[in-house]
Amino acid sequence: VMPEMRAALSLYGLAFYLWKTVVPLGLYPQYVMAAELSPWDPRIVAGALAAVAVTAVAVLLRRRWPAGLAVWVCYAASLLPVLSIARVDPQQYVADHHSYLATMGVALGAAVALAMLPGRAFQAAAVAATLALGALARAQVPVWRDSVSLWTHTLAGSPNSVVAHNNLGESLAAARRLEEAIPHFERAVAIKVLHPDL
Q1: Phi and psi angles of residue 91, each rounded to the nearest 5 degrees, phi first
Q2: Among residues 17, 44, 92, 104, which is most buried (max CB within 10 A)?
Q3: Nearest residue to 103 (alpha-carbon basis) of 15, 27, 8
Q4: No. of helices (H) and no. of strands (E), the chain
């Protein structure tokens, strides 16, 4: 993978994980990188610019708001081992579970910001956030109900995932649904032949 692609994907990852934490919609266990993905893809460029912008704001406000820079540095440092600058997984370029540890500081910063609101505003914001996050968590329950539902959902977001096709095939086969399993095994093999690096 080209150095510029590694850098672009790493900056995109910083923005992606922050965005998915703040707006946890369209979540999938795996996001597969398209073979033709370019560092100049509009999504990659937008994410990279967002990461650079957040970094610039945190640095500029470091004297007035040092906690902001501290949270951002801890966030970026925690993600470093899974960003593309350190590793490139040809099967996926980001994954929701990579953000669990890194976003703890972001959550703490958000909680402190909420606590600084006046009494009634704090209570209203806390209740609204709890209800919204509860509803979003409830929507994830059917996705994680069992392996079949999990990998079926994954394929809805990443139809060319070798891992998802293979795992869904295995889950269906384990449930004795062999006729449904076979096409997923065949698709996994076909993708692997086209992209032997996966």
Answers
A1: -85, -25
A2: 17
A3: 15
A4: 9, 0
| CA–CA distance, 96 with 13 (Å, rounded to integer) | 10
Select from 108, 23, 116 the least CA-distant residue to 74: 108
Pair of tokens at residue 188: 């996994």
Three-state secondary-structure class, residue 119: helix
- Assign 168 to helix, strand or coil: helix
Whether this model's pTM surpasses 0.70: yes
Instruction: Give the number of other Cβ atoms within 10 Å of residue 172's Cβ.
Output: 22
**pLDDT tens track, the chain, 198 positions:** 678 888 888 999 999 999 999 888 889 888 887 767 788 989 899 999 999 999 999 999 999 989 899 999 999 999 998 888 877 666 677 888 888 889 998 888 888 888 888 888 888 988 998 999 999 999 999 999 999 999 999 999 889 889 899 999 999 999 999 999 999 999 999 988 765 555
Q: What does the alpha-carbon distance between residue 66 and residue 83 come to, in Å, rounded to a whole number?
A: 25
Quick one: tokens of 30? 């795996």
- CB 31, CB 154: distance < 8 Å: no
Distance CA 20, CA 33 (A): 17
C-alpha gyration radius of the chain: 20
